[in-house]
Each structure stands twice: as structure tokens, then as C-alpha cells.
Amino acid sequence: MGVDRRAVIGLIAGGAVGTMFTPAIWKTTGSIALWSQNWGWIPRIPKGERKYAYTTSKLCPSGSGLKVLTVDGLPLTAAGNPAHPLSQGGVSALGLSECYLLYSPARVKKPLLKTGAQFKEISWDEALGLLADKLKAAGGKAAAISGDQNGTANEVISALLAKLGCADKFFLMPSEGQAAGRAWQLMGGHGLIGYDLANADTVLALGADLFESSGATMLNARSYSAQRSSLDKPAAKLVYVGSQRTTTAYASSKWVPCLPGREAAVALGLAALLIKGGASSDAPDFADFKAFVSAGYTPDKVEALTGIKAEVLEKLAKKLTEAKKPLVVAGSEFGQGAPGAAYMAALAVNILLKRINVPGGVYATPEFPKVVDGALSRTQMASADLVKYLSSVAAGKTPAPELLITYDANPAFGLPQAPAMAKALAGAGFKAAFASFMDETAAQADLVLPASLPMERYDDVVSPYGAPFAVYSLVKPLLKKPVHDTKAACDVILAAAAKAGLALGADSFEKLLKTKVAAVAKSGGFIAGKDASPSAALAGKDVAAFSGDPWKALMEGAAYVVASPVKQDGLTLGTKTLAAALKADGAKAEDGALALTCAYKTRSGSPAVGIPAQDLTAVRDTELAGTKTVATLNAATAKMFKLEAGESIKLTGPAGEISALVALSETVMTGVVAVPMGFGHTAFDDFSKNKGQNVLAVMTATEEPATGVNSWSGSKVKIAKI
Q: With a threshold of 0.90, does the pTM exceed it?
């Protein structure tokens, strides 16, 4: 079955991107329901009152608001909350899975302590006492890794490390938000980065899969679909530049093939053409920037670097010049690993186009106040590089921590050079994993503390990366008690800290969140709703400030929004940093090496969740053939290596190797091999493990000069027939 652009935009309008998008769409809703209802671990639907409850998804990376149908208090199905500004009725596959995941057979049901090669169940009192003892013993030789990219939980954990004297050892799992934030800081920018697709008339996505893995994906999809309500006379145009047809590429008006990891060269080539056409900036380094791009990024040179024809680049520059509200967004095709220079170069183009803090442009959004003494700010968190730290540990240059705490994170699976990263993690003295599922990292741990899932706990979502406004939402328990003997991780951390003499100022996370909400409510914002649209506020319309009980409003599923951007002073084009970062641009690739690219789909789950069981029906045979990973090449690339569809191959990188079956498709550019992400688990349950191989094992992280950002987009691999 073919899917044309109109069909894709229809899926976006329905909020189904990431859930239903596939050239081989789900069979029928009825067959899926029948198939899923046969699982013995799914409880029978009880009799009782049916009503809707409202919360926010912590599993969906874009923080979608959820409208959950409950029966007698039991969450049954989840859908997007139409009133929530980040979802507007849409929801990703991960958000949809939250009800089912409560009963996943991979869940950790009780605290576990490793004795020898096996785990034994222990009581919560024993687990709490052991964790407190390990905190006291570790002192400043502890480290923590969080898979939560934005929540107040990170304040709790980073403040705990600050009490121990090692706040610099708090790390987030890699994301685009960290790399973009670092780039913005290096240019003298303040605040968090967001993109106003709702008010833009021309969007150029450089690698960023805006509707699947990059930024506030559901908001992006809903904003774009609203602009495309008239397909014959759309209010916005989208051009996608990348090495493969991603979800965003399918929905775009034009796909421009470009080698992965070369997005910075495209942006700088556009900058050179814009300046040639008269664009300028009052940035202090404009003269140097002009000389840099005019000499190094002519259309011919950009073509050699990226594969984009000179005339195509010139047409892209013309589109941006002719647009009234253009917007350029850089990123990775799989939501992580893009070089810092790509974000800097794209931001520089937006500066030249006068698109900073204006409707339809790039917005710098404020951070909400911290409420835990000693906690790191979001900006500070973004500067700590987990891949760099673990690489140093693996190389013996940095001592392994005596205590390693992981929270909603699976670094043993979800990092580039996965085997080396797993080895570095294994070297930690004592490993305590707060995990909802028995993932690869939990399987390595000495102590596994079963964490309640979002529908069983209090939590929050704070301004996901890419949102053009600051936004705060609450997560609340929808069940009267957890399905298993689990606890909210932050409640355990607060209790263990107090027991270790490191009290953090609160005895429950719920109370701490009430303090957070009170602080947020003083930020001069409003509650988003029908008559208080964030996109309308960004466009200059007046919105009434909020008055009322903020905790009550947020507990009912509302979102608090601040649509006032952070003013910028001293913003530069980042010339010196870009010149140093791209000094080796154009270096000859190793003979016989192919550029490796990936596509991340939320229906493939996440490192910390695995593959949701009900989403296996949506996995295409061009991603997974039985239990084997499928690698996609176009006909020209296959001919270069004398490969045919269905043949077995081995992909080898400096850090490892994987095997795959060949598929042929013109959805991938010449010189590139595309491998899906999310497969290759060795843990979780039968729905996740032993299905394909982990492509991150062959990705190579390289520290970018000047920016210090580790990048693995555009990793090179060798290919051989097995």
C-alpha cells in the first residue's frame, strides 16, 4: 500500500504520526484489539463507572497531555488531551502505551538485590537502608544518570549529588535538547530553545525529524497540520533535508537528500548565499562570519560536502528569502547525536533572517524557578556530557564511581558504542537502578528499586525541548495504588537521603511538587485553553493572566504557560567556534565506508521502556524480518557493493558490529545505509528481547572540537556480505 503526502498530512492532522505512520499500515483496529486482548497479563475490564481522567505523559518525549478513559478507577485507554498545548488532541505511540505498560510482564515487581549472578527479593526497608548506607559510604565518589530530560526529579537527584560533593557527576541521557542548549550558550544565548512552527510560513528542517523524534513532536505535527488545513493553498511549506525519507520527509513538500552529519555545511552554505543577497546582522562577529562562509561554503563546496546540488542549495536560499516567516531547525534524524555545529549554524541562519524571538521563529524560553537547594539548572545539566564521561571511564582516564544511581535510564543499551558504554557502567562499585522494567541496565545493577510508572505516581513535565513557550504540567496517579510493590523513585531518594543525613528539604515528592507549582504560578503566565492559546500569545494576542488555585487546575490536566521570551544581548554568530569545530570538514572518508543513518519511531519504544507489546503489530518488515534487523540501501549503493535484497550482511564500526538483511529502497540516498533504532534488546520480555540488533553498537561518538559536543550522527561503517 502506498502512502502519498496527502495521506501523511491526514495522519498528522489526526495525531497519528509515530503511531500509525507506515507504508504497511496496521491491519485493522479490530484485529489489533483481538490480538492484544488475548494476553493473560492484561486484566479483564471491570464493571463500574466510566469517566475520563486527565494527566500528562512522561513516556512520550514531547510531554503530551493525556485523556484517559477509566472504568471503576482503572485506566483503560489513553488518547490525546485536546486542551493541552503540547498535544492538542494528538498523542505518540509511547503515550498511547501507558495504560498497557502498567501490566507489562517486564515490570520489576519488588526490590531486588543481586547475590552472585542472581537476584533475590528484599523488603523496601532493607532496600532503603542499603541505599542510605551506600550514599554515606560513597561521599563524593558517586554519579547519577537520569533518563528524565526535564522534570523536577532532576532537581532532587542533582541536589543529592551536590550534598555529596559531586554535582558535576549528574548526567542526562543524550538528547537534542542538550546539544542545542550547548550551541546556544556558545553563541551567547540565554534561555531554552524552542521553535514556533505554528506561526511560520516556511520551515526548513535540517536533519530534524520534527514529527517523530526531534523536539516537541506532537506540537510540531499539530501546528503543521493546522497550517495545512487547505492542501491546495497551504499556509506553510516544509522542506526536509536529510539522508532518508523520515516521517517528516514524507509530510514535506520537498525532500532534499543530504549526507548525515553534514547539516552544518548546508546551513553555512545557505548563510553565504543569504549574505550575498544582502542579509546582515549586528552581531559583533558578522564581518568574520561573512568572510568564513563566503570562502569556505560556496555552493560547489557545499555540494562536495553534502551531496546537495549547487542549484538546489540556491533554490533553498531563495525560498528562505522570499518567505515572510521562515524558520530553520537543525537536528538528528534519530533524535540524538547531531554535532553542535549543526545547531549553531542553523541558529546563525535564523539570526541572519531576523527570526529570533519573533512569531514563527526561534524562541528563547525562560526556565522555571528551582525549588530544591543545591540543584542544577537545566542549562547546567545540559553542559555535562555522559558519553564523554563514560568514554573516559572506559579508557581508564577517569575512575569509575563507587556508587552509580540510574533513574528511568538505560545507558547500557541507549548510548553509542553500546558495548564499551556497558563495560564502563559495569565497572562502577555499586549500582542502584530505579527502574520500572528489567532493562539491560537494571540487569547489571546490584540493587534494583522498582519505580512506579507515571500513572502510579506524582511527577511533572517541564518545557520539553523545542516548545516555543515555557510550559509546566503535572503527572498524577490514576490508580488507587500501584499494580505491584513499587514506589515513586523520588520518594525513595528523599527518604534515603534523609536517612543518610543528607535531607533535601521535603519528605515526599508530592509536597515538593506543590512547592514547585506555587513557584511556577508566580512566573506571570496563564493556563492554556480555548481562549488562551500559546501560539496566539506568541503572535501578539493578549491572554489573561491566571488567577485561581494552580495546583487544582494542573491536577485537572491543565498546563501553565509563559509565552514571554528571554531577551538576548550580545548574541553572536559563533564564528570562531564554528571555524574550529569544522576545521576537518571535508576530510576524506575511509575507502569502502558507508555513512550510517537511523530512524527512530516512538512505536519502537525507548531504551528505558522497551518495545510496547501492542506496537509490535506496527513494525514493518522493512525494519525487522522475523528476528533479524533490516538494513536499507538504494539500488545504486547496493550495486556498488554487489548486494541484492534479502542477502545477509555485516556492518562494522570501530566500536562493534551487527548483522542485518538487505532491503532495497529509494527512500535512502546513495552512499548511505539506514538501520532502524529500538531493536536488539537482551532484556525486558519476549516482546522486546532477541528482536534484531542494536544499531548503537556500531555508532562511533566523536568529540567535536571547540563545542565539546559528542556526535555520532554520520558514523561510518564498513559493509560486507556474510
A: yes
